[in-house]
Amino acid sequence: MEDYKFLFKVVLVGNSGVGKTCLVRRFTQGLFPPGQGATIGVDFMIKTVEIDGEKVKLQIWDTAGQERFRSITQSYYRSAHALILVYDISCQPTFDCLPDWLREIEEYASNKVLRILVGNKMDREDREIPIHVGEGFAQRHDMYFLETSAKEAENVEKLFMEIAAELMEQARSKELPRYDTISPTINGRTTSIGDNSCCSKIS
Ligand SMILES: Nc1nc2c(ncn2[C@@H]2O[C@H](COP(=O)(O)OP(=O)(O)OP(=O)(O)O)[C@@H](O)[C@H]2O)c(=O)[nH]1
């Protein structure tokens, strides 16, 4: 038996190119990968963290933002304990797509899922979405909110640690099952993203 007390599944969703993979790799590997290709289907990484002296294992599922993978990625929503919905603060269309993503989440995820809105790429100077606009959206939709930079390692650790702490708190208070099953994953990163990929619409 592995040495951890809690296991939580965290799923990242959002348009292609917003930086989901970079956020996961920053947190799990401490790096900002150069020449990142678009995710194919779903990628999966694990990190065990310690909170209040307890080991918490995070299973982090990085879904492809591209529309053509939507039916694969939707199937990963259901068993998520937390869903991180990511947009790019320098790309308005990725913010405009948020209502579409919320509809997907409502349709496919558990209604108890912890939902976090993340405005990534806060290091960029060509910002299109002011922070208060992101915050306002999150408030209206009952979500936690944070701006991050995977590139500069800003708020990335905080994002995942706060999720782990909140889920641990919930699990303790509701006495949820401590272990979850792991389902198979589809991996691969071969295609590259074009300049406009962050702006691909979902329908
Ligand atoms: N400036 C800046 N660029 C970033 C940041 N995070 C990611 N990027 C860049 O954004 C591009 C897309 O990053 P990915 O992590 O592959 O995006 P994704 O959301 O996983 O994309 P899909 O796999 O297609 O869904 C890459 O060129 C990254 O270098 C960030 O915090 N700041």
Tell me, rounded to a whole number, the average pLDDT.
85
CATH topology, by name, is Rossmann fold
Number of helices: 6
**Main sheet makeup:** 6 strands, mixed
Q: Tell me the helix content.
A: 25-40%
Query: What fraction of residues sit in β-strands?
Result: 15-25%
- What small ligands are held by the chains? guanosine-5'-triphosphate
CATH architecture assignment: 3-Layer(aba) Sandwich
- What is Rg? 16 Å
- What would you call the shape? globular
Count of structural domains: 1
Q: Which regions are unreliable across 5 or more consecutive residues at pLDDT < 50?
A: 178-203
The CATH homologous superfamily is called P-loop containing nucleotide triphosphate hydrolases
The string of secondary-structure elements, in order, is EHEEHEHHEHEH
3D structure, described in words:
- Its main location: membrane.
- Its EC number is 3.6.5.2.
- This is Ras-related protein Rab-30.
- This protein is α/β, with parallel strands linked by helices.
- It has one domain: 3-Layer(aba) Sandwich (Rossmann fold), CATH 3.40.50.300.
- 30% of the residues lie in helices and 23% in strands.
- It has six helices and six strands, in the order E-H-E-E-H-E-H-H-E-H-E-H.
- It has a six-stranded mixed beta sheet with strand order 2-3-1-4-5-6, sandwiched between helices.
- The longest helix is centred in the C-terminal third of the chain and has 19 residues.
- It starts with 5 loop residues before the first strand and ends in a 29-residue tail after the last helix.
- The C terminus is likely disordered.
- The chain binds guanosine-5'-triphosphate (GTP).
- Guanosine-5'-triphosphate (GTP) binds next to helix 1.
